[in-house]
Design goal:
This protein is mainly alpha-helical and about 110 residues long. It has 2 helices and no strands.
Length: about 110
């Protein structure tokens, strides 16, 4: 049988594990920093796009208000109440004419 004598120092193994952990920590912290930068960039982009949308909405409201308020005042000739009463009178007279012209039906 082959027998090999291997001498391992415990402090050497602990040192290698510590160095590997530190390298892994540096690698992962670099990844996290890169992702945080991307998140910050996307947040800034979203804020700027929302600000642009709000500005466009303000401009739209200003244009709508500008076109809704006429520069020349318009005075209505009839009010809404007069129109309703005029329509109701015509309906009653029309019904009376129709009922008066039809022959009565008896059973």
């Amino acid at each position: 049988m082959l027998v090999f004598e291997v001498n391992l120092n415990v402090f050497f193994i602990i040192g290698i594990v510590a160095i590997a952990g530190f390298v892994g920590f540096l690698f992962r912290s670099g990844q996290i920093n890169g992702l945080n930068k991307k998140v910050d960039e996307l947040e800034k982009e979203m804020l700027s796009s929302h600000a642009e949308i709000l500005q466009l909405q303000r401009e739209k409201i200003e244009l709508l208000q500008k076109f809704q308020t006429p520069s020349i005042p318009v005075i209505p000739l009839k009010t809404a109440k007069e129109e309703k009463t005029a329509e109701s009178f015509t309906d009653i007279s029309l019904r009376k004419k129709l009922l008066g012209s039809q022959p009565a039906v008896t059973k």
